[in-house]
Amino acid sequence: MDNQIFNQTVGHPDWPEPDEAAKAHSQELVKLITSNIQNNNGSIGFDRYMGMALYEPGLGYYSAGAGKFGPLGDFTTAPEISPLFSWCLARQCLEVFEITGGDRILELGAGSGIMACDLLSELMRLNALPSEYLILETSADLKQRQYQLLKERQPDVLDRVKWLDTLPSERIDGVVLANEVLDAIPVHKITITENKISELRVTFKDDSFSWLKADISDEKFISLAANRLDDVLGSINDVYETEINLMIGPFLRSISEILATGAAFFIDYGYSRNEYYHPQRTTGTLVCHYRHRSHDNPFILVGCQDITAFVDFTTVAESAHEVGMEVHGYSPQAAFLMSCGMEDVMNTYRNEDQIWNLKLSQQAGQLMLPGEMGEKFKVMGLTRNVPTSLKGFSTGNSIHKL
To answer: Could you tell me which residues are beta bridge partners of residue 202?
Structure first.
């Protein structure tokens, strides 16, 4: 088992191996998933596999202690690239505060804590500190990292920050932030052959995980998949694989239940439905991240790599309507940041240091250029009891594409 799980990277000689502690965690996780498979007639849904690989307490990718973010981790998020991202987002938060009178922020999965640091710094400069900054974080290791970073960089506002293990029991007025959260919600994997929809489940044989094609007995699942894939069915000439996220609805319902007045902003890579389920996107959108290498094999480096799927933002919008939230905007990240005042933010922070100014310009390019994050990443704003438009969607609003 040990050799199979780690030596499947033989075709990638430049990939660094996990350290011994990470390997030990991975081997325990593999045993646990394998046991789960054996106890479920030899296979489990990919959603179950992905959930265990990412979130199994003490063993999953987001639950164990390995570094994940930044140059020394597995991937780099927009807040890690530049504070410009959070400084612009702060201005959108300020507008929501002014419209609603609410002044609390809830961040879902704060990563390294850098977005919270930079966001609070800018809100303090704007004399608009939230009364409370809540961080929902299930990883004890990440909580500690976030606390240390905030203690070092923003000690004066640390008393406003509170960590949660579950969503708050009281409803909040203000802002909910979720940067690269939706892509890590476990998905089902399906395949279509001759217009028949089947599920791709996970089995374990010959000392490795593999796919198992299976009939779907759940009629509700079949109906939902057929509805989302309506434009694709009939256009497929060969085998077509993709993902279905059945957890978006329950997830948004839980967010809706705690947001009394205000806005929730979801920033992630994804598409509208007609782009997501395009006939030419025949292998789906599953992407794994390991030490800044992207690939499509979720069955190696178990617990040591991130597993993600692009977001179907049309499903997010539909689910939002079902739970009583309004879709206020849907824009490429570049348009959202420009609308939030990127140019003004850059002018505010430019100084006589030309190297610093050049660095800011380069970072802005990474956040906004089409070949970087500008078009790949989208921002969706969902609101409750917000009667006016939001500045982040004043240009480039693409709701009509959903």
So the answer is: 44, 211
pTM: 0.94
Do the beta carbons of residue 308 and residue 288 sit within 8 Å?
yes
- Alpha-carbon separation of residue 245 from 143, 147, 228, 259, 309 (angstroms): 27, 32, 11, 23, 9
Show the beta-strand stretches assigned E in 291-359. 293-295, 306-308, 311-312, 326-332
CA neighbor of 65 nearest in space, from 144, 150, 151: 144
Query: Distance between CA 64 and CA 251 in Å, rounded?
Result: 23
How many Å is the Cα radius of gyration of the chain?
21
- What's the N-to-C CA distance of the chain in angstroms? 44
**Residue whose pair of structure tokens reads 């996220």 in the numeric block:** 245
Task: Please spell the DSSP secondary structure of 165-203, one letter per residue.
Answer: SS--SS-EEEEEEEES-GGGS--EEEEEETTEEEEEEEE
Query: Digits of tens for pLDDT over the chain (402 positions)?
Result: 444 444 444 346 678 888 888 888 899 999 999 999 999 999 999 999 999 999 999 899 988 755 555 555 567 899 999 999 999 999 999 999 999 999 999 999 999 999 999 999 999 999 999 999 999 998 888 999 999 999 999 999 999 999 999 999 999 999 999 999 999 999 999 999 888 899 999 999 988 999 999 999 888 898 988 889 887 787 887 899 999 999 999 999 999 999 999 999 999 999 999 999 999 999 999 999 998 889 999 999 999 999 999 999 999 999 999 999 999 999 999 999 999 999 999 999 999 999 999 999 999 999 999 999 999 999 999 999 999 999 999 999 999 999
Q: Tell me the HSE value of 87 on the side-chain side, using a 13 A CA sphere.
A: 19
190-224 residues labelled b (16+ CB within 10 A) or e (exposed): bbbeeeebebbbbbbeeeebebbeeebeeeebbeb
Could you give the CA distance from residue 283 to residue 239 in angstroms, rounded to a whole number? 9
Structural domains in the chain plus CATH codes: 2-63+185-247+276-308 (3.40.50.12710), 78-179+331-374 (3.40.50.12710)
Contact 86, 223 (CB under 8 A): no
Task: Read off the tokens for 238.
Answer: 């060969």
